[in-house]
Every structure is written in C-alpha cells, then in structure tokens.
Design the sequence.
C-alpha cells in the first residue's frame, strides 16, 4: 500500500491504514468467500462504503486471490481498472462502485433485504468511516434496517477519530456515536480495530444470532503502523516520498518479523 | 395515469415475481391491493428517499426489479446523487415512478412540482426517461420498461387525465415518438400531460383556420435517437416543442442542440415554463395560463409561429 501510494503520488494512505486490519479479519477469517467462485450464491457480501479506503481493499483482495497481485501496480495509472475509489463493473469481487459517502449502508440494506426475499442466508458487511456517519443518508438507512430487523446486516465503523479536515470530536462531538447507533435500534459493540485476535472474537455465532442489525465500532488509528503517519490528518492527503517510504517500510518490517498478524489470523479462523 | 399505473403494476407483479414495489411513505391506499396480494413484495421504507434508491440498487443487484414510487421531486431531485451513483453508474435496472409531473400538484406549491426534473435527470447516463401522455401510453410502455436492462424514470400526471390515444392503440414502443395526428404545416413535439392541451389546440386550429398540424407524443425523453428524430423532421417542416417544464436540459433544448449539430435548419420554436418559481398559489390550469402555456396560448403561439415562418419565406 505504501509503495503504491508512493509510486502513484495518491492520497488516502492514512484512511487505508486505519481499516486494513478490519478488512484482513473479515476476508481471512470471517466472511464466506471463494476466490475461485467470486459470485457464488451464498457468499457473504461486502460493501466498502468508505470508498476512499480502497487501497486497503485492493491489497486485501490481491492477498486473498481475488485480484492478480500484478494488477496492483497499475493502481491509479491511466487506463487501469483500479482507481482511487472502486469503479463499477471491473471485478466481480467488488460488487458496488462507491466513493461518495453515505451510500453503502442503504445499498447494503437492499442486499440484506434481498436475502430475505430469496430465502438465502448470506451476510452483508458494510465498512464505513466515522466521518461518513455525518451523512444524513446513513441515518435514513440505519432507521430502515432496524425497523425491518435486517439481522444479517453488519456495519463496521472505522472510528479513527479524524475526518477530512478536522477531528471528529470537533465536527460531530455533540453526541456519542455508539449511543446514536444504539438509539437507532442497532446492536452495538466496540473493539480495538487493530487487535486482530480481539476483532475475530467479536464475530461469534451468538453475535450473528441477535435479531437486530449490528454495528461494530472499531477504534482505530489513522495511518496505523507508521509512527509518523499515525493520528496525523496530513496523511489523508500526502503521499510518502522516497525517504518517507523507506522509513515506513522499515518500521513495518519490524512488525512483520514478529509475526503477530498471521498468528492472530489463525486464532480468528479457529473461533 | 396513476390508476393505470397501479393496474398495470398489479398485472406485472402477478406474472413477474422479481418485481418489488417500494414507496417512501406515499400513495395512501393506492398500493393496498398489491400489498394484499404480495405482502412480501411491497416495502414502505418510510420517508427516506435517499435510502429508498440505495435499497433499490441492492435489490436490483441481487436479481430483483424494484419499482420506486414517490412524487416527482422526491423521487428525482431529493435523491439525485443516489440515482446517479447507485443506479446509473452501477447501471442497475430499477423503475423510478414519479407522480405529479409538471404543474399537476399546483396548489401544493413549487416544492411539489415536477418542472425541472426532466432537465436534471436527462443529464444522467444509462437512464431511460419516459413521460407518457395518458393511461394508454402507461399501459403500453410500462411492460416494455420492465424488460430494459437500465434504470428507468417514469413520470406520471395525477389521475383522470383525458385520453390522447384511442383506447386500443397497439403501436407504441419505447424510443419511438408516437404521431397522434398527421399534419404538414407545423410539427408540435410534446409529452406528458401537456399533450392533451396541444392535441386539442391542433384540432381547433385545423377547424378554425385550416392549419395542418402534426402532433407527436414524445414519451421517450431519453435516449433521443437520431434514427427516430430524422424521419419526423426531414421534410423541413417547422418544429415547435411544447413542454410543461423549464428549459434547462429539457426536450426542447436537447433537440435544438441535436438540430444545430446536424445542420438541420427547420424553423424552430420552444414553449416552456419560465425559469422561476410561481409566487402565488394556483391549480394546474391557472398556472398554465400564468405561464402562457394554456390551450389558448398554445393556439396563439402556433399561429404566430406559422405567420413568422410564412413571412420569413416571403421576405
């Protein structure tokens, strides 16, 4: 992700780093998917409502075998199917084009509604941003989903506390996000959005069986994993130059050597 | 038109189990019958128009065909970006149905009028736009709309409009404007509830002044296809477009551009609503009169246009 952002001089590395652990857990351990049959009828559906985090999704899909890893290097180049927000009709594994905020939840509610009508049992996962929760259309859809008890609809809010120009607290600090979802009739829980093992443990059978739509507020850090990007709004917009990249990759290598992520994913799979 | 719509929808839902009716809390008692017959396939989402479109996109992606129902401004401008992204960009089939086209809901005030929707919606790729002129066109076009693989926007009047077509007209096709009356002096293109005014005006002028007026119901506002436009104008006939709509992006402005780009220089005249919101209350007839689009005004303007064309030729 860092290399791609560097090569293409594209922004949004901060919000991609904040949600990549969430995606990793979903794709590696939670969702029913099959890269050989990306459109199998009973697959779980995923909608990236915060379309600007797509770099994390592309990378994740490439790791999971849905995308050819070579194609990643066309990211954001002229003629590429990989844009800064997911394009329509490029890959079966990316079911909807998104990028304008506040759309994904209603679409997800429609997909969840369809499963009821078709009597199929797939789940629908929607990843949203915390800033995105400013959008009125989110609350329209939230009210609809709880009224119709769409219990196979699961939202994960990437709560990195920073939105496009300022801290969430400053722009929407007048209410508690979790309480807002609760008052809209949703089952809520919160988790450390970078603790892969903990996140995995949220997705239990008991959790899925609750007869309400569910929201997981994942507490995250914008720019997670690269010390100088963490919690710095600058990295919603900046791209790493050669020096930044070298430093960032150096830091990440340290983490990888400790092998934390892969062993954590194994523990998710076991639950 | 509204009653014809619900009758046709009921029939279509009976044979096509993929059709889902979605309303944003409008249509009191109108969908009771379909809800009784198909309780699972009627979804009242509440007053949530943006969400209604998103839900339609989700259902469509999973193989259903949603019909999304509200008043014209609420099913178009209120949720324009959802239509743009969720339906048009993702190119998912769904039928948006707006009631109260033009000035039909006049006494409700401009918030409820459908007088800019054609212009705004015409800007969106992949969308098919239908504006039937009477119950016959609704019954004939709706079953065809269901077979399209694009999002469709159908704008309806209210109810009880007089018919423009014969009850048993058979030859109506999406994409092909329908000639209601042949004529050689001037061709008037119109659509929706305006059509009846134009047709009556044409018949009266023919009787009173001996003018020969071609009246065309332009029920498919988008896409506009060259091969259907050209035969209607290739005899060099003067063209007048009459619409209960402001001019930006409307049929008249798009046809004018079409003619200009192809160097088609038939005399051209465009009657439309002024670009302003009425500042008084009034029913449709009153507001049409105020906007100089009543039958009397249309007659006067056709005569004036014909005189102008004749003077031009003589001069």
Sequence:
């Amino acid at each position: 992700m860092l290399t791609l952002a560097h090569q293409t001089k594209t922004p949004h590395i901060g919000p991609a780093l904040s949600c990549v652990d969430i995606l990793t857990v979903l794709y590696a351990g939670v969702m029913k998917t099959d890269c050989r049959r990306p459109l199998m009828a009973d697959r779980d559906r995923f909608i990236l409502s915060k379309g600007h985090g797509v770099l994390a999704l592309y990378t994740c899909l490439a790791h999971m075998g849905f995308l050819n890893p070579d194609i990643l290097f066309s990211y954001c180049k002229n003629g590429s199917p990989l844009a800064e927000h997911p394009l329509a009709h490029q890959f079966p594994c990316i079911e909807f084009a998104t990028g304008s905020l506040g759309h994904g939840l209603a679409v997800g509610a429609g997909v969840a509604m369809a499963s009821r009508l078709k009597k199929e049992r797939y789940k629908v996962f929607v990843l949203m941003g915390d800033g995105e929760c400013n959008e009125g259309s989110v609350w329209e859809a939230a009210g609809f989903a709880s009224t119709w008890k769409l219990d196979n609809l699961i939202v994960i809010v990437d709560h990195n506390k920073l939105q496009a120009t300022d801290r969430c607290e400053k722009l929407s600090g007048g209410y508690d996000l979790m309480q807002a979802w609760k008052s809209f009739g949703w089952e809520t829980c919160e988790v450390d959005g970078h603790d892969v093992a903990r996140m995995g443990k949220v997705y239990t059978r008991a959790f899925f069986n609750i007869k309400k739509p569910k929201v997981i507020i994942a507490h995250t850090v914008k720019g997670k994993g690269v010390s100088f990007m963490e919690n710095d709004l600058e990295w919603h917009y900046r791209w790493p130059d050669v020096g930044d990249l070298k430093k960032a990759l150096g830091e990440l290598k340290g983490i990888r050597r400790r092998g934390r992520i892969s062993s954590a994913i194994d523990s998710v799979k076991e639950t | 038109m509204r009653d014809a719509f619900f009758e046709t929808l009921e029939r279509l839902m009976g044979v096509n189990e993929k059709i889902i009716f979605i309303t944003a809390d409008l249509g009191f008692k109108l969908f009771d019958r379909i809800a009784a017959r198909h309780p699972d396939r009627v979804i009242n989402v509440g007053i949530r128009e943006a969400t209604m479109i998103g839900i339609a996109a989700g259902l469509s992606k999973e193989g259903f065909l949603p019909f999304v129902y509200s008043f014209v401004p609420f099913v178009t401008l209120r949720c324009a970006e959802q239509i743009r992204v969720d339906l048009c960009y993702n190119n998912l089939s769904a039928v948006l149905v707006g009631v109260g086209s033009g000035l039909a809901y006049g006494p409700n005030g401009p918030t409820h009028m459908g007088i800019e929707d054609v212009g705004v919606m015409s800007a969106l790729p992949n969308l098919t736009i239908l504006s039937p002129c009477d119950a016959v066109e609704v019954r004939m076009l709706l079953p065809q709309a269901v077979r399209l693989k694009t999002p469709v926007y159908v704008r309806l009047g209210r109810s009880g409009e007089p018919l423009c077509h014969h009850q048993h007209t058979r030859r109506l096709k999406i994409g092909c404007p329908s000639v209601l009356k042949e004529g050689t002096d001037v061709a008037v293109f119109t659509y929706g509830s305006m059509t009846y005014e134009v047709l009556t005006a044409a018949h009266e002028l023919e009787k009173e002044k001996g003018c020969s007026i071609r009246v065309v119901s332009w029920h498919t506002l988008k896409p506009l296809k060259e091969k259907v436009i050209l035969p209607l104008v290739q005899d060099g006939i003067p063209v007048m477009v009459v619409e209960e709509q402001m001019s930006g992006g409307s049929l008249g402005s798009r046809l004018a551009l079409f003619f200009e780009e192809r160097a088609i220089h038939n005399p051209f005249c465009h009657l439309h609503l002024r670009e302003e919101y009425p500042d008084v209350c009034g029913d449709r007839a009153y507001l049409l009169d105020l906007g100089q689009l009543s039958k009397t005004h249309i007659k006067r303007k056709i005569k004036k246009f014909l005189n102008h064309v004749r003077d031009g030729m003589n001069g």
In short: The longest helix of chain A spans residues 13-30. Chain A touches chain B at residues 88-89, 95-100, 102-103, 105-115, 117-118, 136-137, 140-141, 143-144, 147-148 (CB under 8 Å). The beta strands of chain A are 45-48, 124-129, 153-159, 187-192, 214-219.
